[in-house]
Inverse folding.
C-alpha cells in the first residue's frame, strides 16, 4: 500500500492563511446538512477568494503564477487564421498587456484578432510559443 504523506502549512504565512480560509469555507459549506456536498459554484467562489487572499488576480493573465527566473513576460499580438490553425504575429512587446488590450469587434473574414501573454527568454521565443499554442488548438 502507498504511504500517506501529510503536508503541513503555516497559517501565519499568506499562502497558509489562504489555505486555512478555504478550509473554513469548505467546512461551513458542508455544515448545511448531513451528507451535503458543496455545489460547484460555491467551491469556485471559495477558490477565487483564496486566490485573492494570495494576492492573485483571478481575472488576470496566467503568467502571474509563473516562477521567477524563467524569462521575461511578453505580450504577443496577432491574427489567428482559422482555416489553418495558424497565427500571424503582428508584434511582441515586453510586459503584461493582454488584459489591457481593447477588444475590437469586426474580425476579418477567416482571421480573428488574437493576444496573449507569455514568459519567455526573448520576444522571438514568445512568438514561437504563441504560434505553437495556436497550432495545438490551446487557445
Amino acid at each position: 500500500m502507498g504511504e500517506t504523506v501529510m503536508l503541513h502549512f503555516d497559517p501565519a504565512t499568506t499562502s497558509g492563511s489562504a489555505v486555512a480560509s478555504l478550509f473554513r469555507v469548505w467546512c461551513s459549506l458542508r455544515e448545511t446538512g448531513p451528507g451535503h456536498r458543496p455545489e460547484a459554484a460555491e467551491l469556485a467562489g471559495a477558490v477565487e477568494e483564496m486566490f485573492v487572499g494570495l494576492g492573485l488576480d483571478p481575472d488576470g493573465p496566467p503568467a502571474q503564477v509563473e516562477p521567477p527566473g524563467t524569462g521575461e513576460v511578453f505580450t504577443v499580438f496577432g491574427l489567428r487564421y482559422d482555416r489553418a490553425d495558424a497565427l500571424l504575429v503582428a508584434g511582441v512587446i515586453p510586459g503584461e498587456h493582454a488584459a489591457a488590450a481593447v477588444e475590437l469587434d469586426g474580425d476579418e473574414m477567416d482571421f480573428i484578432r488574437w493576444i496573449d501573454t507569455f514568459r519567455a527568454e526573448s520576444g522571438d521565443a514568445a512568438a514561437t510559443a504563441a504560434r505553437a499554442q495556436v497550432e495545438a488548438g490551446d487557445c
